[in-house]
Design goal:
The chain has about 575 residues and is mainly β. About 0% of the residues lie in helices and about 50% in strands. The protein folds into two domains: about 35-310, Methylamine Dehydrogenase, Chain H, CATH 2.130.10; about 315-580, Neuraminidase (6 Propeller), CATH 2.120.10.
Length: about 575
């Protein structure tokens, strides 16, 4: 029976509805206190000077001195923070839009000016009395104190992401298998890795050095000079890497966790979650992996893992409309249906998959999610699993011009005429696909580092404008494609070929977009904004600080879903109401 949920005040939304987890230690693994801001992505974690520092989306920075209780620290930015490092009594945190933060006490963080603009800093390390940070365009900066920064010529324009200091050398890694070493952070030498995959992280451990990356890539070196690819037990993206207790530990997409005693022979651990991990650290006692939806997993031995905290069970990512019904879905198999987006009935499917996207077409609803999960329903209430032919996470599904398109990790692209029978579609993407749109006789797909167009949704052409940028969704309206991404950026095009960059009034990551009633609406954490043409955007009063993960216009209204099971509705994109589902 549907339960009518009253519109909540902003204060209640800010307080949230989560119950704290017990704070204590079990026989095998500790239990973490809940993230003060559940649902935000934790992009990396570092350990030094007795403290764990986790950084993430929209300026998120958390610290812990015991791995059990985490404290959110105030930062002066709202862009993604990607890495952190400690040295000479100073912590730094780095991120998008050339952001470098500095702190001597982990409480007060100050933004430091750097001699480059528009760089996404990704990796940070300290060694030989120097901080070294690396980022987009092959940029590397060095500093003895975290205040005064000097550019260092690397000889590459590839994106650099991983950074470490080992055996007297700085090592940075990144796009197209790039790996550079330097004894002084001044003179850099490229090293052959034998792979063309993005190498996200590099670390020193038993027997040598390891770099990990896309499609399960693992390369090993005994000396930092000679590198060789290793057999990997997974095709998943490996984003995090650390070492401790005589083991390398790697973490990545779909909850992937690996361990190795020597960097060459790897075993996949049983993961307690399907959420993507983006970083992992060792604090001297415990391995700590962090990732999407504020997820933190813990292990004393690098092999047996438990969830310490997660916000995924309170997430809504998917929203769809058909046959007079709205369907919203999210973490751990939760699905809600409603006739008006106010009264909602909830249920849970047995598989407890996370559902990341939804669509309606050919007379049925389709939800897609973790490990290739696809569920279909004729009425939004009764759901059946459908074979997808893939185990990759699926992040997007749309019904366009008479066919479903579903996309996910490692460039996975599927098509179906009816939502029941799915076939793979070749395309040029290497990373995750996040959105589809069609208009003016052109299909467009958007994803991490990719933007492609097609005349029929089957034969795709890669557009170089998408390389190096994170596109999160897609919409078409008013004769224009609009593709949102990180740092508040939107790409627009009338033909799917020539694109213009639009700077919007927010620097937060844009997670969703839709078009209806002559208006584009885009959403982010605590942000809803509108545009009549995709080029000029206006911030609207938003009744929640939660992330808006999915948006659509249907049934005469805009409906959005997001963190803490928040649902927002508006008749015009300007005046919004919010409620929280149980």
């Amino acid at each position: 029976m549907a339960i009518r949920w009253l519109i909540l005040l902003i204060l209640l939304l800010l307080l949230g509805c989560g119950n704290p987890s017990p704070d204590g230690v079990q026989v095998t693994s500790p239990v973490f206190a809940p993230d003060p801001l559940p649902g935000l992505t934790l992009a990396n974690v570092a350990f030094a000077d007795g403290t764990l520092v986790a950084v993430g989306s929209n300026g998120l920075l958390e610290t812990s001195d015991d791995g059990k209780t985490w404290t959110t620290r105030s930062t002066p930015v709202q862009v993604n923070l990607r890495g952190a490092a400690f040295g000479n009594g100073v912590w730094i945190a780095v991120g998008d839009a050339s952001v470098v933060l500095r702190s001597t006490d982990l409480v007060t963080w100050t933004r430091v000016q750097v001699p480059v603009q528009g760089v996404g800093f990704r990796g940070a390390t300290f060694g030989n009395g120097l901080f070294v940070i690396a980022g987009s365009g092959g940029v590397v900066l060095t500093s003895p104190d975290g205040i005064v920064w000097t550019p260092s010529a690397t000889g590459t324009t590839n994106i650099l992401w991983g950074a470490t200091f080992a055996d007297g050398s700085f090592i940075v890694s990144g796009q197209f298998g790039t790996l550079l070493t330097s004894p002084d952070a001044v003179t850099w030498t490229p090293r052959s890795t034998g792979v063309g995959d993005f190498l996200w992280q590099v670390a020193q451990g038993p027997g040598g050095l390891v770099a990990v990356g896309d499609q399960g890539a693992i390369v090993f070196s005994p000396d930092g000079v000679n590198w060789a690819p290793q057999n990997s037990p997974t095709p998943e993206v490996l984003r995090g890497l650390t070492a401790g207790k005589g083991l390398f530990v790697a973490a990545g997409s779909g909850g992937t966790l690996l361990f190795s005693p020597d960097g060459q022979n790897w075993t996949q651990a049983l993961s307690p979650t399907a959420s993507t991990f983006r970083g992992v650290a060792f604090d001297g006692t415990t391995f700590v992996a962090v990732g999407d939806s504020g997820t933190i997993a813990l292990s004393y031995d690098g092999q047996s893992w438990v969830i310490g905290q997660t916000g995924e069970e309170r997430e809504l990512w998917a929203i769809a409309f058909g046959n007079g019904a709205y369907v919203a879905a999210g973490g751990q198999g939760r699905i809600f249906s409603s006739a008006d987006a106010v009264d909602w009935t909830g249920q849970q499917v047995a598989g407890q998959e996370n559902f990341y996207s939804g669509a309606f077409g050919a007379g049925r609803f389709v939800l897609v999610g973790t490990r290739g999960a696809i569920y279909t329903s004729l009425n939004g209430v009764d759901w059946i699993p459908t074979a997808s032919g893939t185990t990759q996470n699926l992040y997007a599904v749309s019904f366009l011009s008479g066919r479903f398109l579903a996309g996910g990790l490692n460039g996975t692209l599927l098509t179906s005429p009816d939502g029941l029978n799915w076939a793979p579609v070749p395309n040029g993407a290497l990373h995750a696909l996040h959105g589809f749109a069609v208009g003016n006789g052109v299909f467009v797909l958007a994803g991490a580092g990719t933007l492609q167009s097609s005349p029929d949704g089957l034969a795709w052409t890669v557009n170089p404008v998408g390389i190096g940028h994170f596109q999160t969704a897609a919409a078409f309206g008013a004769g224009t494609f609009a593709i949102p991404g990180h740092v508040g950026r939107i790409l627009t095009s009338s033909d799917g070929v020539d694109w213009a960059l639009v700077i919007t009034p927010t620097t937060r990551n844009l997670d969703s977009i839709t078009f209806g009633n002559g208006t584009f609406v885009a959403g982010a954490e605590g942000v809803l904004m509108t545009s009549p043409d995709g080029a000029t955007w206006t911030l609207q009063a938003t009744p929640t600080e939660r992330s808006i993960r999915g948006l659509l216009f249907a049934g005469g209204q805009f409906v959005g879903v997001g963190g803490d099971r928040t649902v927002v509705t508006s008749p015009d994109g300007v005046t919004w109401s919010a409620l929280v589902l149980p």
